[in-house]
Amino acid sequence: MIEGCLEDLVQQTIFAKGEMEILVIDSGSEQQESKIVREFQNKHERIQYFRTEKRETLYKAWNRAIEKANGEYLTNANTDDRHEPRCIEFLVRSLDENPDCGLCYGNLYRSIVPNEKFGEEDEAHSCESQEFFPGSLLLHYPYGAQPLWRRTHQLEIGPFNEEFKALGDYDFALRLAKRGVVSKYVPQAWGKTLRHDGALSTKDFTALQEKKLIIKKYWDAKSVSEIYHPLARTETEKLQNHHDSLDEYFLDLGLRALCFYPQFANREPQLDLRLLEFAFSSNTKSPIFANNLLLLDLLLGKKRERSDFLPEWENDGIRNKNLRFLDGNVSEGEFHLYGPTLNFPSETALKGIGESYLISHGRITDGFSRDRNLYLFCFAKFWKQTLKNIPQE
């Protein structure tokens, strides 16, 4: 596929303008890529070729290219990736025009046809991404296959973790977010990647195992605070203390974990439910968190006595509504959830789609005299959308 990849890259408008270099890392391939690359080098300047005799991991090859790159910005192009001719230029111009942003990303087609050129999308699935919000990164990776980032940030946080085989770019994105680096969605930029059984992101259980490593590494109070704080800084200054800020972040994160809208793959939401449990279990003394955590038991089909839940507190109105819900048909009713006092953007708003089973229901004063957001979780809509793929206990 190296020939199709190089043909795609030299057709990028920014390459034609002399503003892009191409570095090819041949990691011990036995398919005579060197001959193909030399043919392109004879026709085009700014193409470099490096070969290692032994096979290397994907991210070791990326790191090798980064060490040799001369550009201000970096992007990856795996051999089965393709780009709309203006894709990389759109991303570059966006970073040029937004000096406060460290990474830009666009949309993606997922094809099942090898060497399918851009513009031949009959067998490709369109996967539109979403506006950037740092908390979303704890739920999923929204950057697709062809993001563009500043070399300075790469040098600041270090190389890709070469222990990863499939999700090193996800780990890198979270490291950027922890440093407060802001990303930007560029909807005009479109790329394409090939979906096949041998792909690192879909082969065996590697990606799932590495997602669990990422969970272990980043699902903690310190990481959540670092990832949320930069964009929430002006709002959180109004809060009383650091613990108040953490509660705000965790309430938002738990609600965000309910939004099963993965752009780039169809997957089951069990890991998202783990994120919900992690978030809503973070404050065991708060009746607000106790109320929200009850939803997890309801989704998993756990049977509880109504007296086990929703401890007495001042805001009996919402408590009583949820108790009446428990007395009815929980597969069809609506459950009230408390949100943060701050107005973080929802996943549906970031993706530009209408509300579904998690519906904003205005604001309410809680039992601590704080004005916070209120949500309705509609069970019937949820089961219809997720096809009941949550394991029942």
From TrEMBL:
Pfam families: Glycos_transf_2 (PF00535). InterPro entries: Glyco_trans_2-like, Nucleotide-diphossugar_trans. SUPFAM superfamilies: Nucleotide-diphospho-sugar transferases. Residues 2-121 form the Glycosyltransferase 2-like domain. This is Glycosyltransferase 2-like domain-containing protein. It comes from marine metagenome.
